[in-house]
Design a protein that fits this description.
0% strand; flat; mainly alpha; single chain
Length: 194
C-alpha cells in the first residue's frame, strides 16, 4: 500500500511538471527580429528622449531651483525638491533599463554574427559595465543628495550613454537586413535581379 502511494505521488509530480512545461511561455528566440526591434526602440528612446538635447539639461538645471528659492515658501521648496528628485531617479532608472535592453541584445547577437569586430564588442562590453555601474552610483547619489547633488556625475553618465548608443547604432547597422537595392547592385551584368 505504501509503495502504491509513493508511485502515485511520483506520477502526479511528473504529470504536474509536464503540465508546467507545456504551459510555460516561450521567450523570444535568440537572434529574432523582436529583439532587433527592441534594441532599435531602445536606441530611439535613448537618443531622442532620455539623452535628447534638452532633456538632461532641463531635469538637472539648477536655475529652476534658484528661481524657486528666490521667492517661495519652505513648503514649496520641499515639494519642488521632492518632485525633481523623483523625476531624476525615474530618468536614471529608465536610462539603466534601456541600456540593459541594448546589452542583452548585444550578448545574443555577438555570438551569432561574424561581422562584429572583437575590439568593438570588447569596448562595448566594458562601456556597458561602466555605464550600468555609473547609473547605480548616480541613483544612490541622487537619492542621498537630491537632484542637484551630483552634476558632474550626471554629465559623465549621459556622455557614456551617448558613446554606447553610437557604438550600438554602428553594430545595429552591421546587422540590418539588406534592402532589395543591395541585391541588385551585387548582381552581375545580365544576371538575375531580385
Amino acid at each position: 500500500m505504501i509503495a502504491l502511494i509513493f508511485y502515485s505521488l511520483i506520477g502526479a509530480g511528473l504529470l504536474a511538471l509536464l503540465v508546467i512545461l507545456a504551459l510555460r511561455q516561450r521567450g523570444a528566440v535568440e537572434g529574432s527580429g523582436e529583439q532587433f526591434a527592441q534594441a532599435r526602440q531602445s536606441l530611439v528612446t535613448l537618443r531622442s528622449g532620455l539623452l535628447g538635447a534638452n532633456a538632461v539639461e532641463r531635469i538637472f538645471d539648477p536655475r529652476d531651483w534658484n528661481f524657486i528659492q528666490a521667492g517661495t515658501s519652505a513648503e514649496i521648496h520641499d515639494l519642488f525638491l521632492a518632485e525633481r528628485k523623483r523625476i531624476s531617479l525615474l530618468w536614471v532608472s529608465r536610462l539603466r533599463g534601456e541600456i540593459r535592453n541594448l546589452m542583452h541584445f548585444h550578448l545574443g547577437y555577438s555570438r551569432l554574427h561574424g561581422k562584429l569586430e572583437l575590439e568593438t564588442e570588447i569596448r562595448l562590453a566594458w562601456d556597458f559595465a561602466l555605464l550600468l555601474s555609473a547609473c547605480r552610483a548616480l541613483e544612490v547619489l541622487l537619492y542621498l543628495r537630491g537632484p542637484y547633488g551630483a552634476p558632474g556625475m550626471v554629465g559623465i553618465t549621459a556622455g557614456a550613454a551617448a558613446r554606447v548608443c553610437a557604438t550600438s547604432e554602428q553594430s545595429l547597422g552591421l546587422l540590418s537586413p539588406l534592402s532589395k537595392d543591395a541585391f541588385r547592385r551585387d548582381s552581375a551584368e545580365g544576371g538575375a535581379a531580385v
